[in-house]
Design brief:
heterodimer; A: mainly alpha; two-stranded antiparallel ribbon; 13 helices; globular; B: alpha/beta; six-stranded parallel β-sheet; six-stranded mixed β-sheet; 10 helices
Chain lengths: 311, 342
């Protein structure tokens, strides 16, 4: 055990795990909000790709990672707006339009990349920012307090989103819109407006999640750089049972298992790599199976709301 | 009202999906099929089907650039069509069949995963030349090209072992299959042959295009002490950038010269001379041989090469270079045999 500590392996596993969890956490918190309002946004992957591209591109042009992140958030908001228009205003089948949005994001980000960048390019990107004092604590410092600012923001967002969802009037409206939109409508709260707001905020977070991959992690963009992370984030919303703390637990469990298997492989521990790569998925499924309690998804999830028509 | 909405939503989804296809089939593809009454041109028509994109800075780009170069040098002219993002062999099969019916002369399916679709379609179009690789099973009108990735890998293994100060080198693997096995095994053998008790560590992402994960594996390798890293497939760019973030660590690249990604981190590259292979296929076809050959790319036939990054070449000591040259010569002469069955 002392060896384990001295070689920095434990620090490595936890620090890497936290880094891996950020995009899932951001995207899943956004999706949680969206689903709480009753819209199932399967287009997360496409929004993340657009955020990943615009975050990279604006950083590439302006050399400012902060402007890049801002651009990613704006791009995400626009994608969220599009999803809102299609699924709320036009009342399209949410699953189908979400898949369409995913494809649109993949196609457009790839097309823009070819048109405006033309090939693999790298950026300076966002660097880890060590929190003064806290970052100097042995062992805990490098584990928790030497990350980039998006990481701190993502973890802060967990209590914030809990507070907003369960302790504010707006949060109550969001939850009510996702449960019984008719009732909320009769009280004078616009279902359409609420869902638009949630989809746009969810889109912003997904855009930021995508930008994490390009601006903070890899410092580059390439076609389909998200590689399915958007869909994992959606699964994590179910795992976390539409609760910020549950999503935090799910993201960390999945990413720590992932980080652990990377270290197992790198250290040459005799274990089939195919199984190692599967480990995060297996751990997550097992955790889901043995956890107790009934699941209460938002009752109106996936159902477009039409005034005067029974849901 | 309801049904109009449904139709509208389906239409919208289709429009969205279409945008994917637009980029997916981009490149130089000519949209319309040739008209039956159009005059017959002497231009050679070549179609290229790629698993990733023409700017992936790896496997696909190396082939695409070679074709572009041939196109610019050709006297009779070459018409080139490219289909990208054909990761799934079924999609690739549809593209290949379409090119075949449009009367392309040579159809190149650039990936080991296309072997079965090529073998299925080729017999129906006996006059068309099909080529795919990595592979060795040819057919009457199929060329199988086969880069001996293990040869360059072995040589780079020697280089890595001699250059490593920490005595640990790391491989960022995609999936333990096909080319990656050849490359990784060759590299490991090269490291072992160089002596000096250098350890090779290997970790896989489980994918060919997980750029983010490749970067994480590279970081983990470096945290665990590796100071020279390598790895194949298009996801490698993510690992290269991670290596560039830590001064004193170097990357050895394969498929093409990747030093443009990180001029201060890529020490050397294994490069394939696709132009030579393509020229051979074109010439054979002109002479009436439409297929049936297994074409290797190796040090011996000059279609494989090791390229140092000029910016970093000075950092490599002379005796290391001599050892690398010797390994290269011995492989070409056949005195070093790389047995992949072990």
């Amino acid at each position: 055990m002392t060896d384990f500590m001295e070689q920095g392996i434990l620090i490595g596993i936890i620090a890497t795990g936290i880094r891996l969890a950020i995009p899932y956490l951001l995207a899943a918190l956004g999706e949680m909000l969206t689903q709480r309002s009753g819209v199932f946004n399967l287009g997360l992957e496409g929004i993340m790709l657009m955020g990943a591209f615009f975050g990279f591109y604006v950083t590439f042009v302006t050399h400012s990672p902060m402007l890049g992140l801002l651009a990613a958030i704006v791009a995400g908001a626009l994608m969220g707006l599009l999803m809102a228009f299609v699924s709320v205003t036009l009342q399209a089948e949410q699953g189908i339009s979400g898949i369409g949005l995913s494809m649109l994001g993949w196609g457009l980000s790839g097309l823009f990349f070819r048109l405006y960048v033309g090939g693999i390019q790298t950026i300076e990107g966002l660097k880890p920012w060590k929190i003064p004092v806290l970052g100097d604590i042995p062992i805990l410092g490098p584990m928790f307090f030497n990350h980039n600012i998006i990481a701190y923001f993502a973890f802060l967002l967990v209590p914030i989103s809990w507070f907003v969802l369960f302790r504010t009037t707006w949060g109550l409206s969001v939850r009510a819109v996702g449960m019984t939109p008719q009732a909320v409508d009769t009280l004078g709260v616009s279902v359409t407006k609420m869902r638009y707001q949630c989809l746009i905020i969810g889109g912003m977070l997904a855009g930021l999640a995508g930008a994490t991959l390009t601006v903070a992690n890899t410092h580059m963009f390439a076609d389909n750089i998200t590689a399915g992370r958007g869909f994992i984030a959606i699964a994590l919303v179910y795992f976390g049972r539409w609760s910020p703390w549950g999503i935090l637990a799910g993201s960390l469990l999945f990413s720590m298992a992932d980080s652990f298997q990377l270290w197992v492989q790198v250290l040459g521990i005799n274990f089939p790599y195919e199984l190692a790569v599967m480990l995060p998925y297996i751990v997550t499924i097992v955790a889901l199976m043995i956890s107790f309690g009934r699941v209460w998804p938002p009752a109106a999830l996936g159902k477009p709301y039409e005034r005067g028509v029974r849901g | 009202m309801k049904s109009t909405r449904k139709i509208l939503s389906i239409l919208l989804a289709m429009v969205l999906a279409l945008s994917l296809l637009i980029t997916g089939c981009g490149g130089d593809q000519k949209p319309a099929a040739p008209k039956a009454d159009a005059p017959k041109t002497q231009k050679l028509k070549i179609a290229l089907v790629l698993p990733s994109t023409v700017d992936d800075m790896a496997w696909a780009q190396s082939m695409y650039e070679a074709l572009k170069k041939l196109q610019s040098q050709s006297k009779d002219g070459i018409e080139l069509a490219v289909s990208e993002r054909m990761g799934k062999p079924v999609d690739a099969g549809a593209a290949i069949r379409q090119y075949a019916t449009q009367g392309f002369d040579i159809i190149i399916a650039h990936g080991a995963q296309y072997q079965s679709v090529v073998k299925e379609i080729a017999p129906e179009f006996p006059k068309i030349t099909f080529a795919y690789g990595t592979g060795f099973q040819s057919g009457p009108n199929i060329f199988a090209y086969d880069p001996q990735a293990q040869e360059g890998a072995y040589v780079m293994g020697v280089l890595a072992a001699k250059m490593s100060k920490s005595k640990i080198v790391g491989i960022v693997g995609p999936v333990e299959a096909g080319d990656a096995i050849k490359y990784n095994k060759g590299f490991q053998m090269g490291v072992a042959a160089a002596g000096g008790d250098v350890k090779t560590r290997i970790a896989y992402t489980g994918s060919f295009n997980e750029i983010v994960k490749a970067g994480e594996i590279a970081k983990t390798h470096m945290d665990a002490g590796a100071d020279l890293l390598t790895g194949s497939s298009q996801q490698a760019v993510g690992a290269i950038k991670a290596v560039a973030g830590k001064p004193g660590t170097y990357w050895l690249s394969t498929d093409m010269d990747q030093s443009a990604v990180a001029p201060d981190a890529v020490l050397a590259s294994q490069v394939y001379n696709w132009e030579k292979v393509l020229t051979k296929i074109i010439d054979l076809r002109k002479a009436g041989t439409v297929g049936g050959q297994h074409l290797t790319l190796s040090f011996a036939d000059g279609m494989l090469d090791l390229k140092y990054n000029p910016k970093l070449e000075g950092k490599i000591p002379q005796d290391v270079k001599a050892a690398v040259e010797k390994a290269k010569k011995d492989i070409a002469a056949g005195t070093i045999k790389i047995d992949l069955s072990k």
